[in-house]
Amino acid sequence: MKKNNHAVEGPDGLVRTARLPLSSGPLNYLADLMRGHLKKIGSRWRALPAGKIAGLVLAVPRCDQRPGDLAGGNQIHRTTVTGWVREVVGLLAARAPRLDRALK
User: Fold this and answer.
1) How many independent structural domains does the chain possess?
2) Spatial distance between the Cα atoms of 35 and 52, rounded to a whole number of angstroms
3) pLDDT tens, position by position, for the chain (104 residues)?
4) Would you call 9 helix, strand, or coil by DSSP?
5) What is the span of the domain harbouring residue 90?
6) Alpha carbon of residue 92 to chain centroid
7) End-to-end distance of the chain based on CA atoms, in angstroms?
8) Which of 27, 59, 78, 96 could form a disulfide with 68 if both were Cys (CB 3.0 to 4.6 A apart)?
9) 12 within some domain
10) Is 4 a member of any domain?
């Protein structure tokens, strides 16, 4: 995987943004999964709503975005985005069937 190590600021010092072409299906699925998890663990709030968190988490592998770049644009810390990515990977892994069962 190629790493994105260039600065997010353009030559004029302005931060560049782009829209993420993503269908609503995966975004809604992940947001619903997160809402259920937050309700299950009794989390009262997060810095951003579940739908926005899902979009940020999906942008990390989709656009090779650095968590720090995504965090800065949303007024949260880099470690928060990294934690959300790990949390979502764990949620998705828990829902995945075991490989040996899937191959049968």
Assistant:
1) 1
2) 12
3) 555 555 555 454 444 555 556 778 888 999 999 999 989 999 877 888 888 888 888 887 776 677 777 787 778 888 988 898 899 988 988 888 776 776 66
4) strand
5) 24-97
6) 12
7) 31
8) 78
9) no
10) no
Which pLDDT belongs to residue 31? 92
Joined together, the tokens standing for residue 58 give: 């999906």
Q: What is the pLDDT of residue 47?
A: 82
- Output the six-digit token pair for 27: 């975004």
pTM: 0.68
1 lies in some domain: no
Cα Rg, the chain, nearest whole Å: 16
- E strand map for the chain: none
Cβ neighbours around 71 below 10 Å, total: 20
Furthest C-alpha separation in the chain = 57
At residue 30, the pLDDT reads 92
Q: Is residue 63 packed enough to be buried (19+ CB in 10 Å), middle (13-18) or exposed (0-12)?
A: middle
